[in-house]
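Name: NHR domain-containing protein
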Amino acid sequence: IRIDRLVDKWSGSIEVGITTHNPTALEFPATMTNMRSGTTMMSGCGILTNGKGTRREYGEFNLDELREGDRIGMMRKSNGNLHYFINGLDQGVAATKVPSCVWGVVDLYGMTVKVTIVDRDEREEQNLITRRNTALRDHQNLHGLNDLPEEDFVDRLMFHPNCGTHAAVINNCRTAHRPNAMDDFNNGVVLTNRPLKINELFEVRLDKMVTKWAGSIEIGVTTHNPTELEYPSTMTNVRSGTWMMTGNGVMHNGTTVIDEYGQNLDRLQVGDRVGVMCKDNDTLHFFVNGVDQGAAASNIPERVYGVIDLYGQAAQATIVDSLDCYSPDTVNSSLSNTTVYSDLRFHHVHGKNARVSNNGLTASRPRAFGEFNDAIVISNRALRPGEMYEVVIEKMVDRWSGSIEAGVTAIRPEDLDFPSTMTDINHDTWMLSGSAVMQDGVTLRTGYGCDLDTLGTGTRIGMMRHDDETLHYYVDGVDQGAACDGVPPHVYAVVDLYGQCAQVSIVQPDRGREDAAVTIGQSENSSQPVSLQQHQAANTNSHPNSETTHSQLFVFNEIKS
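Structure predicted for NHR domain-containing protein:
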């Protein structure tokens, strides 16, 4: 089994073993070490038989110290001996005279919340062993080995896991959502994990919305610590140390101090961004799609946390890095059925060890010498018919087995629960790993025209879904032939920065005058969100000229393209 998810809350962790009890007849105990018959378990670094310790120090590993991605195996040998395997390494005899008919047991105890049964993968096991040896040998030197400064990665602004009762923090603490947004509209308050720095922009992008409720996202700052705050149903109920922008007004400690301020947050739609900043003159400024709305309050204390309230229609939001303000979606023309595509970028959601920078064009694994997986990145939109998605390998490290993996998936980025490697996904996914073509984690063929494990720095790797539903790979622009068929339309490109591959960047094609016209109509070049442009275009009573203006703009784009 592979450990997929741990939480840093409880003491103790996974326990694994065997039992003679049939699961259909077993009265499941609170923990398997309570069983008093027919059961052998490994807990921590010890072995327990029928609830009693039989070996205090077993093997080289402590199960309580294993990390996400580590693998635990069990095997009953033909002589009746039980062996455990940690990351493929045999830990020796744990028990003898084991009955021939036994069931495997996993106790998701304490810190461990998710595991998966997996096939043996020698490459993965070797990398896990290397990771452990690296951590033991080079712990003091990792700062010098990283592509990004350690403090920059550690100090990255995130959401604190403590939040309102209807909210949850996901995506490595970069995304907050209301999982049951159709059933509840409040109790969605989420704070940052640390106080904001002076002149630091705390900005989020709206990922999901529902149309059921009134009101939407609210944003601001508070002096209250996320671990000590008694989370209210809505942040505007807090009566001390709190400044919030709600709708187009500003509130201080629950009282409105500005009635008409900036653009109305209730009109924002998916893809729009809203932010807040405490400036060095102690004034508070709010931002909508990167545009400063002006001073909203003064005399702000030095130590304040960022806060959002996923209220009403706002169902999910993700923190946006300052360099990653790109449009994640396509822009639909209001006058035809054609779709105006935004430029290809990496999506702002990704694996926990990945980092997207350079306005969404570059993806890297900052701790490239300390981590080898959990670095999946995905395109910001589905590929259009016959479109090439191409990246160039920019950095590699000579430490791990395996390298970049690439492919496509029909899973939307917002719906993808990022695994440690993309070949772990068992549906709607086609990947090239080395020279093996895989669909849904199963190898379709080996010996494909190119071997990704042999490619070096400077090599370009491209992918394209052809009209005949085949997926082709390209190396430095040369077609390597059809890798697989039956690939549906509307797939997203996927790159797994695995093993030796530490950084790639998207190769931008020369798309000429067509895209020059397209960019005129994109919301990211406007001081207003897409939703506000649409609202104004539709509101002919209050803005008699705006519909004409916007119609002319989109007609111009259609003619140019």
